[in-house]
Design brief:
With about 140 residues, the chain is an alpha+beta fold. Helices cover about 35% and strands about 20% of the residues. It contains 6 helices and 6 strands.
């Protein structure tokens, strides 16, 4: 099974120039805790990731306001990504290795095509590969 088979396609995204308030509203409205940060809606090149935790820890707890830009608080270095044709076992390996629960999926030209979350793997693979799912769920943090 490939990343494309388990990913959430066409994920909600923000740009580096969007405000933290906008990112938080998108997260609230879409019921997600992570947003890929892309250069623009046409090219959809991955520039970073912003999480609900980033907003709370890096922005609000540090005394910054909701009008800060996503750029100021996103993670933009050492991003973990996978390709659409990567095997789910490779996706799970990267999640365990980097202690992340969600990974952007890149298509041709490094366009953001989707996101794979631990829950996506668990939902689709538990019956076929319970050991992989159990190992993954035990090794990645609850938040992040």
């Amino acid at each position: 099974m490939k990343a494309r088979d388990v990913m959430t396609a066409h994920p909600s995204v923000v740009t580096p120039d969007d405000t933290i308030r906008t990112a938080a509203q998108v997260m609230r409205d879409r019921h997600v805790g992570t947003l890929p940060v892309i250069d623009n809606l046409t090219d959809r090149q991955l520039k970073g990731i912003i999480t609900d935790r980033d907003i709370v820890i890096r922005c609000l707890a540090a005394g910054h306001g909701a009008e800060c830009t996503v750029r100021e608080h996103m993670t933009s270095r050492h991003l973990t990504t996978v390709r659409m044709d990567d095997e789910v076992s490779e996706v799970a390996h990267k999640m365990r290795r980097d202690h992340v629960r969600r990974i952007p999926v890149l298509a041709d030209n490094d366009r953001v095509a989707g996101v794979v979350a631990v829950v996506d793997i668990a939902t689709r693979l538990r019956p076929a590969d319970p050991a992989l799912v159990e190992g993954l769920e035990r090794s990645v943090p609850v938040s992040g």
